[in-house]
Design goal:
By secondary structure, this protein is an alpha+beta fold. The protein folds into two domains: 233 residues, Cytochrome Bc1 Complex, Chain A, domain 1, CATH 3.30.830.10; 202 residues, Cytochrome Bc1 Complex, Chain A, domain 1 (2-Layer Sandwich), CATH 3.30.830.10. The chain is built from 14 helices and 13 strands. Helix 1 packs across helix 4 and helix 8 packs across helix 14. The chain is globular and about 65 Å long. The termini are far apart. The relative contact order is 0.15.
């Protein structure tokens, strides 16, 4: 991945490859995740993707995308650690230069390529220029009226966002994970919802949202990630030419690097983290564990167990945590899945998830509400086993091979490749995807044991059916 500085606060991350027939473009506007502007930022993508001055209806947008051989465009907001990122995504066929005298300089034969419609004032463009021009129009010339965004669009998209936010409850498994993270990181930015809060929406006017957007464009770092068969120098020049609102900016916001989440007993005095492992209280010590139970009218309960390591998201601790999570609950061959679901038949599903930026592992399980306490005890037993006894070389080898397959699959998806390199960049980790699996191979059984010993059960969240725990 080549890194090119376009201008102050604007960078191009380019991966030149002929592997894909399409070019993938991600434009990422980075903001520090705060409660005050989380909903404002979450609302912006929906408003912006509704159109711009040149393409002021969805019909015109779709016609332009069809003219680019069925290009794909979308905008959304993503949460990366303690950053909230407004993301614009495009994927288009690398058709090369425009047609000249009936022949195409690109990879698609002229007789098979769809004919794009141009006005007399607009000469044919290369596929890359046309795609980036479209994106620049969306970003820089949104639909406005009376000093703000168009009121009908803001109202419509606010309603859509409200529906999405309130819909969190519809997927109880995802809701339980989100709730557990919120409780674990209640005093940290990571506990803030990246898609905003419904109660904020009535106070967001078209004018307020528009001027917030102007400030976002003026001061936010912008990252272009482009993957495909491109000429990086020409691409950099195109970005500089077309995205004028991002040029010659001053006082660019510095988005702080996300730090690992510390166990509750260490939050007041954050220690340095030079060592691979630090001493932790035993897993059975529950004085620092926060337990929250919510009741719903459901037949299947959920339990989420939040584990904190306090370890950084790069270097040896990161690779060790990645493998530990795979062994613990990262696949259908993991200890939690085999021992609790398959052997004891106590639950419907059980997996663990690793949140790299915060050094957190989250165990999630769906089971009958009266089984949740027993499942928690068995999860602690598995954690203690990993902390007190080395994993076998066979088990470690299997986990490494499983992760190697997952990493290899990233190479087949430009979007996932872009996401990988974004995560690396945000953590100032220069390890390329090609070396990632090799670094995992270096992790030893002893390191897995030491890493497991560093984990602390921080939060337990239980979502139960009505009447659970009450006497008959």
């Amino acid at each position: 991945m080549e890194l090119i500085n376009i201008s102050n606060g604007v960078k191009l991350h380019a991966l030149q490859t002929q592997k894909f027939k399409t070019v993938t473009v991600c434009l990422l506007i980075r903001r520090k995740l705060t409660r005050a502007e989380a909903t404002l930022n979450a609302l912006l993508p929906g408003v912006l993707r509704r159109g711009c001055e040149k393409f002021n209806t969805l019909t015109k947008i779709n016609r332009e995308l069809e003219g680019m051989y069925g290009a794909v465009f979308d905008a959304d907001v993503v949460k990366k650690g303690e950053e909230q990122i407004i993301q614009f995504f495009m994927e288009f066929v690398n058709a090369g230069e425009p047609e000249i005298n009936g022949t195409s300089a690109g990879k698609i034969p002229a007789d098979k390529a769809p004919k794009a419609e141009y006005s007399p004032a607009e000469p044919p463009q290369s596929a890359e220029r046309r795609a980036l021009s479209f994106l620049a129009e969306i970003l820089q010339n949104p639909l406005t009226e009376n000093g703000g965004f168009r009121a009908d669009i803001v109202s419509s998209e606010a309603e859509n966002l409200k529906t999405a936010i309130e819909g969190r409850l519809n997927n109880k498994a995802e809701y339980a994970k989100l709730k557990c993270v919120e409780i674990m990181c209640e005093n940290e930015a990571f506990g803030i919802y990246g898609d905003g809060y419904a109660e904020d929406l009535p106070g967001i006017t078209p004018v307020k949202l528009f001027w917030h957007y102007k400030r976002v464009l003026k001061e936010s770092p912008a990252e272009f990630i482009i993957i495909g068969n491109i000429d990086t120098k020409k691409t950099a020049a195109l970005i500089k030419e077309l995205f004028t609102d991002l040029a010659e900016r001053e006082n660019i916001l510095k988005v702080p690097k996300t730090l690992p989440s510390l166990p509750r007993e260490q939050i007041k005095a954050r220690p340095a983290l030079p060592a691979h492992v630090r001493t932790r209280p035993p897993l059975t010590s529950r004085g620092h564990i926060k337990t929250v139970t919510e009741e719903f009218n459901v037949s299947q309960g959920k339990i989420c167990i939040g584990l904190k390591s306090g370890m950084p998201a790069t270097g040896a601790p990161f690779y060790s945590l990645t493998l530990l999570n795979e062994i613990l609950g990262g696949s259908a061959n993991s200890r939690l899945f085999v021992n609790i679901r398959e052997k004891k038949s106590l639950c419907y599903s059980i997996f663990s998830y690793f949140y790299r930026f915060k050094g957190i592992i989250l165990i999630h399980c769906g089971a009958d509400s009266d089984k949740l306490e027993e499942i928690f005890a068995l999860c602690e037993k598995e954690l203690s086993s990993l902390a007190n006894k080395k994993v076998s070389e066979k088990e470690l080898s299997f986990a490494k091979k499983s992760l190697a397959k997952k990493i290899s699959a990233l190479n087949d998806s430009p979007a996932q490749t872009a996401d990988f390199y974004l995560s690396q960049y945000l953590q100032n980790d220069k390890v390329p995807l090609t070396c990632f699996a090799r670094n995992l191979e270096k992790v030893t059984a002893r390191e897995i044991k030491e890493t497991a010993a560093a984990l602390v059960v921080d939060t337990v969240y239980m979502l139960t059916g009505s009447g659970y725990g009450k006497e008959a």
